[in-house]
């Protein structure tokens, strides 16, 4: 091979490789800290998000995610729940107060047809799509979940995820907890500080007799009754995450190993509407 031509090819390869690596690092490193309210739902489209569904990846032939012109007088995001997956923000965020308003629909699907209506907002999502499983075909990714489920709106779940080299990375959070009658941990401001690398931290008033049945409602539930809108707030302040339901603080974790990442809105077997998803700057 002609030596000058070989040298040109080698330089071109190096430049292209470095450019690709630089783009990947830059894209992964870009983290937005809101300085003013960011409306992830603008009332018109889903442009801040991309869709991710188990098996289908970025395809959504059944329109699991769509916009309805009006529900209770205003546009909303409709998530049918027919397939398991999520709306995923295109960029990463940190240091914000997420404010969302949701209302359950009537449809339920498949293995959760007769179970409690289920959904969730995942914060600090990191890694490749679908990394909850090593084959990267899971509905979600490594993150901290602010649970939305009948009777359990206010729980936190710690979700680990795999790297391409096969390593499972499990986030860590600490919460003061006590144990209920069945030995399940629930948030207790004067409880024993405990580190969690997996599992669930129940909100402080979750009914000890909670059952995974359609329409379940506990004695102390803060979530609005079926058919009404519920306001949730997830405050991500450095390594602290606080969960409020209808203005009431119900759960909190600290020392989170995840402090930034994508935000995911789940689809998990139940129809649900969101009329508001905002990121407000912290004061």
Give a description of the structure.
This protein has 283 residues and is mainly beta. It folds into two domains: 1-30; 33-281, Sandwich (Jelly Rolls). Helix content is 10%, strand content 43%. The protein is built from one helix and 22 strands. The strands form five sheets. Strands 2, 4, 5, 8, 18, 19, 20 and 22 form an eight-stranded antiparallel sheet that branches. The protein has a seven-stranded antiparallel sheet with strand order 3-6-21-9-10-11-17, with no helix packed on it. The model is unreliable at 1-27 (pLDDT under 50).
- Summarize the amount of helix as a percent range: under 10%
Query: Which fold name fills CATH's third level, the topology of the largest domain?
Result: Jelly Rolls
Rg computed from alpha carbons, rounded to a whole number of angstroms: 21 Å
Low-confidence stretches: 1-27
CATH class of the largest domain: Mainly Beta
Outline type: globular
CATH superfamily membership of the largest domain, which one?
Exo-inulinase, domain 1
Strand content: 35-45%
Number of helices: 1
How many domains make up the coordinates? 2
Cα separation of the termini: 64 Å
Query: How many strands, what sense, and barrel or not for the largest sheet?
Result: 8 strands, antiparallel
The assigned CATH architecture of the largest domain is Sandwich
The helix/strand order is HEEEEEEEEEEEEEEEEEEEEEE
